[in-house]
Amino acid sequence: MGSPAHRCRDIERQAGYLQPEHCAPPPPRTLPDTMWFIRDGCGIACSIITWLLVFYAEFVVVFVMLLPSKSLAYSLVNGALFNGLAFLALASHFRAMCTDPGAVPKGNATKEFIESLQLKPGQVVYKCPKCCSIKPDRAHHCSVCKRCIRKMDHHCPWVNNCVGENNQKYFVLFTMYIALISLHALIMVAFHFMFCFEEDWTKCSTFSPPATVILLILLCFEGLLFLIFTSVMFGTQVHSICTDETGIEQLKKEERRWAKKTKWMNMKVVFGHPFSIAWLSPFAAPDHGKADPYQYVV
């Protein structure tokens, strides 16, 4: 009887039984600087909604709470902080959405490629029957992306992409910055309500009192919902990174067949070597340094 991990694999056979003749020649390789984008209607809609919700929060924070404020210092400090975090959140979202998560070359299960691996007797490779690729260990097929993704954690419709080996850093930063701006917005709403109750409602906003209340209440619901959701996602992702076990591997209870590393080393594998302020930047691609590559042959 095979182990649970083996039963979860698509196909586990020796090279002679992979039937490479059933695979069409692989498509031309795209250039390294080609932007990655998934044409999924649901994912595109969710991504647009995410940006619109952030812009709504920007509108309420700036035009309803900060500009009417009598304290210039309060408006400048909170405006710079909120807009800076919102910019980093949207930049992280864009990088998570438009970065190749670690897609395995499609249709590479050809006779020539298998022969190039120079397999020894007893060595095993994995073939995905859906995208006809020879995939590395810890890779899984995504039915939305229609590709096998290295170290795939899950497919997130809110970023219209898989969360995998190459873009997990950006997804973690996206959840962290969204949680921070949600918390910041909730704190500012609380202070603004206190100010409006003490002062005349007509002086605490350029909008009418009913419109001001409705806008603030909607921002409260949005901030609270996003804070809970992204905080849970952020904690789940950090735990997954520290334990070096993806969401799919946890769900399938796959047997660990890779080297165990320290939590700090696992963090550096995702965010880059060595530790620096670049960990918090969505514009800095992680330098994996001496991180072990995921081989095709096990």
UniProtKB/TrEMBL annotation:
One of the record's GO cellular component terms: membrane
Keyword Acyltransferase among record annotations: yes
PROSITE patterns, per the entry: DHHC
Domain of life: Eukaryota
Enzyme Commission (EC) number: 2.3.1.225
Organismal lineage: Eukaryota, Metazoa, Chordata, Craniata, Vertebrata
Organism in which the protein naturally occurs: Scleropages formosus (Asian bonytongue)
Membrane topology: Multi-pass membrane protein
InterPro entries cross-referenced by the UniProt entry: Palmitoyltrfase_DHHC, PFA4/ZDH16/20/ERF2-like
Gene: ZDHHC3
Protein name: Palmitoyltransferase
EC class: transferase
Protein localization: Membrane
